[in-house]
Amino acid sequence: MESAAFEHTVQPLTEHNGVLVALKGSIDAHNAPQLEQVMRELIEQGNRNIILDLSQLQYISSAGLGVFMVLYEEVQEQGGNVLFAALPEKVLTVFDLLGFTQLFQFFPTVAEAQRYLTSEQSEAAND
Amino acid sequence: MPESSDTKQRRWLQRFGIGEVDAQLLPQFSLGGIFYFIAALLIIIDAMLRGGGVSAAEAPYSVPELLLNLLFFAALVFIGRLMAQHRLGRQWEAQQILKDFFRVSLLIGGVFSVLGMPLDSLLQHFFLARMLIGYPLVAIGILLWLRLFVSLLDLGSLGQRRWSLGLMIGFALYLTMQWIARAFALEVLDVPLKILQGALILLTIVAFWRLPWLPLLSQKTRVHLVWKLLLVILALSLAQSVLDDTIGTILEHYLPGGTKVFSLLSVLAILWASRIWLGVLFLLPAGRLLDRRAREVETLTSLTKMLSREFNIRKVAELVTRAIPEISAANAAWITLKDQPDELLSYGLLPEHIQPFLESTALQQRLREAQDFLYVQNLAAETGLETLYLQVGTYCRSLLIMPLKTAENRLLGHLWTISRDPYAFRPYDIRLLWSFSESIGIAFERAQLFEEAVQKQRYQQELEIARQIQMSLLPGTLPEIAGLRLAAYVSPALEVGGDYYDAVQLRDGRWCILIGDVSGKGVSAALYMAELKGSVMALAHESQSPLELLAKINRVLGPTFQQKMFITLLAVAIDPAAHKLSVARAGHPPLLLFHRGELVRVQPRGIGIGIVPPEKFETLMEEQQVSVAPGTAFLLYTDGAFELQNASGEDFGLHSLEQIFVQTVRAEKQQRADFVVGGILRALSTFSEGQSQFDDITLLVGMFEASAPAWEQESRTKEIEADGIRSL
C-alpha cells in the first residue's frame, strides 16, 4: 500500500481558548505518529478546546483513531473538549463503529461546533 | 638392453647438461653417442699409429684422415641436431636456462683450463699422456662446446627467437666453412670466414641487446648472477686461451678448424655473458624497487581477489590495513567510517592510538576542505602537531588521507595512512592508494548492502515464524454445533497482523463466536492478538454472556495496552434451541444477519477494548438478542472486507459487502457456509482486481440448517423443493 499523506491547517480560536484544526487526506499507521505530534504540540501550547474539521479527511485507519484516544484523555484531564465537525459519512461510520460517537461530540459543521463551545462557555460563566 | 639402461643413459645425458630427454629421443642419443665415440676412437688410433703428432695436423689432410674427420663431423652434427631439437622445442624459465649455461660454461672452463693448462707440458712431451688423457679429454670437451652452443641458443631464444635462429644457421655455416678451409687448406675462404665471423659477433650483439626477462628475476637471483657471470667469463676466457696450446693441436685432429670455431664460440659466449652481466649490474640498484613493485602488484592482485570475496566490513578493513604497509610507503593505516565516527577499523591499532588525529581540529578542518584526498607532507610543519607516537615503532610524520566512496560517489569514510618519515608518499603511492581506496569504497558498500540483505532476510524469517505461530493461534477447525454450519477464512497474509477469530464455550455451555481486530499493524498487533487469544481462553468459561466476556476482556487487557492501542471485538453467542443469538460489540463492525429474506445489521452499542476505563466501558456497552430460524445466515468480518479499494481508488464499502453477502447466500442452494465464504471472497477479489489490499481479511459465515429454506419466499418454489431433499 502506498503510504498515505495528510495535511493540516491550524487556526486559533482565541475566544474559545482553543484551535480549529483542519485535516486533509488520509491517516494510517505510517503517518499517525505525525498526527500525534501535531496534536500533542497543540495541547502543550495550552489549547483546551480543539475543534477538528475533518471535512477533507478521506480515510482514517485504526492507528489514526488511536491518536484521538490519547487526545481525549489529555484534553479531558484539562477540562477541555475535543469536537469533531463536518465528517464525511464514510469517516463518521468508522468513528461510530468504534464507539467514538459515545465519547466525543460530533457536529455536522464547524460553525455548530463553535456555537456549542460558545454556549458552554456562557453556561460556565452563568454558573 | 637391461631395464636400467634407460635411467643410466638419462644420467649420462644429464651430466652433459642435456637434461630430461624424451623417451623416443633416447635411442637416437645412444646411437649418436656410440657413433661419436667410435669416430673419436678411430681418430685416437690413427694418431697413435702416426706417432701422435704434437704439431697441428698438416693441411691438406690425407684421404684417410679426411674420412675419419668427416665421420666425426657427421657424428657431431647428428648429436648437435638432437640437442637443439630437444631443447628448442621447449619452454624454459630464464632461471633454468641460466643455471644450465653456468653449468656448461664452468664445465668447459674446468675441463679445458683447470685440467688442460697444468697438463700442457705433460701432453706436449709424453706420447702416452696425449693418448690416454689429451685425446679423450678433447673428445669430451667437444661435446661440451656443443652443449654451450645449444645453451646460448636457449638464452637467445628467451629474447629474440628470430635472431637466435639466425645465429644458429650462421654458426653452422661458419663451422662447415672452417672445416672445409682447414681440411683442404683453402686460403681463399679466409676472407669470407672473417666476414662471417664479424657478422656473427654483430648478430650476437643485436640478439642480446634487449633482455626482457631480466627484470622478472628476483633480486636475489640477480645478485647471484653478478658473480656467477664473472666466473663464467673467467672460465671461458681461460678455456679459450688453452685452445692455443696442445689441447688446440689435438682438437685440430678431430675437427679441422676447431680451434677457430671454438674460439669464436667462446668470444660469443663471453659477449653474451658480459651483456647479461652489464644488464644485471644496471638493474641492481633499481632491483629492490622492481622487486617491491612486483610484490605490490602481487599483493594488490590477491587483495583485490580477497576484497571481492569478503562481505564483512571489519574483515575487509583488517585485510586492507594490514596490506597497505606492504604495498606503499605507509607504515600504518586505519579506516574511519562517517556513520560510526567512534569506530576504528584497523589491524593492530587501538582507538587511543589514533585519538590525537581525530581530535586535531587543524587536521579535521583540512580534511573537510580537501577536494579529494589530503596529503600532510610534514605533520609538524603543516599542522603544528608534534610527531605522534602511535605505538612502538609506529609514529607519524606524514599523513595521507583518502576518501572512501561508493560507486555513486557517496562518502563512506576515510582511509588514513601514515608514515614515520616526512614527505614519505610519492606520486606513485598517492596514485596507488587512490585507486586502492576506490576499490575499498566499493567493497565496503558491497559489504554494507550484503549485511543489510542478511539482516533483512533474518528479519523476514523471524516474521515468517511469527506468522506461522499466529496462524496456529486461530482455530484450525470450527466446532460442530448442532444445526449450524460454520466456515471461516483468514487471509494468508504475507505479514503478521491483528486479525482474530475464535469459537469458545461460555459458562452456560453456549458457543460464542468471536471476531476481532487489533489496531495498528505488524509485530505489535500480532503480540496483542496473542494476548487477546489467551485472555479469551481464560475468561470465556467464567462468562455468562458475550457482554460479560467483552467486559472482562476489557478489564484484563485494557490496562496492559499502550496508549493509542485498542482492539475491536464482536462476540456472538449461539443458542440453537432457542433460535436466538446474543450479540455484544466492542467497537467492531456490525454483525450481518440474513434472516427471513432480509438483511439486518446487528449493531449493539459498544466501544473498542482499551479505549476507556472499565467502569465507563460497561456503561457504553449493550447486548442485543436476535432471533434466528433455520436458513438464517450470518457474517462476521474484519474491516478489511469492506475497506478495500479497486484500481481506480473506489471504496468497496460496508453496503457493498452486505449486498454481496445477500447475493451469495441466496445463490447458495446447498447451504454450505464454506461456499458462501468462497463466493464473498470471489466477489471481493473481482472488485479489487488484484490490488494488494486484499490481504487483511477475515470472514466467518454461519448458516442455520433448514429442511427447506423458509426465507426463500420468492417465485422459485421448484428450486426450493429440489433443494429440500438435501436437508439433514
Brief account:
The complex is a heterodimer of chains A (127) and B (728). By secondary structure, chain A is of the alpha/beta class.
Q: What is the radius of gyration of chain A computed over CA atoms, rounded to a whole number of angstroms?
A: 14 Å
Tell me how many strands of chain B there are. Answer: 17
| Overall helicity of chain A | 40-55%
What can be said about the biggest beta sheet of chain B? 5 strands, antiparallel
Order of helices and strands of chain A: EEHEHEHEH
Q: Please give the CATH architecture of chain A.
A: 2-Layer Sandwich
CATH homologous superfamily placement of chain A: STAS domain
Number of helices of chain A: 4
How many structural domains in the coordinates of chain A?
Answer: 1
Question: What is the average of the pLDDT values of chain A?
Answer: 86
Poorly predicted runs of chain A: none
| Proportion of strand residues of chain A | 25-35%
- Percent in helix of chain B: 55-70%
Separation, N- and C-terminal Cα atoms of chain A: 52 Å
Oligomeric form of this entry?
Answer: heterodimer
Distance between the termini of chain B: 106 Å
Describe, in plain words, how this protein is organized in 3D:
- The complex is a heterodimer of chains A (127) and B (728).
- Chain A starts with 5 loop residues before the first strand and ends with a helix.
- Chain A has 4 helices and 5 strands.
- In chain A, α1 runs parallel beside α2.
- Chain A has a 5-stranded mixed beta sheet, sandwiched between helices.
- Chain A has 127 residues and is of the alpha/beta class.
- The model of chain A has no long low-confidence stretch (mean pLDDT 86).
- In chain A, β4, α3 and β5 form a beta-alpha-beta unit.
- Chain A has a single domain, classed as 2-Layer Sandwich (Transcription Regulator spoIIAA).
- Chain B has 3 domains: 276 residues, no CATH class; 144 residues, GAF domain (Beta-Lactamase, 2-Layer Sandwich); 242 residues, PPM-type phosphatase domain (Phosphatase 2c, domain 1), CATH 3.60.40.10.
- In chain B, the strands form 4 sheets. Chain B has a 5-stranded antiparallel beta sheet with strand order 2-1-7-6-3. A 5-stranded antiparallel beta sheet of chain B has the order 8-17-16-13-14, covered by helices on one side. In chain B, strands 9-10-11-12-15 form a 5-stranded antiparallel beta sheet, covered by helices on one side.
- In chain B, a hairpin with a 6-residue loop joins β1 and β2.
- The C terminus of chain B is likely disordered.
- The interface between A and B is medium-sized, with 20 and 28 residues.
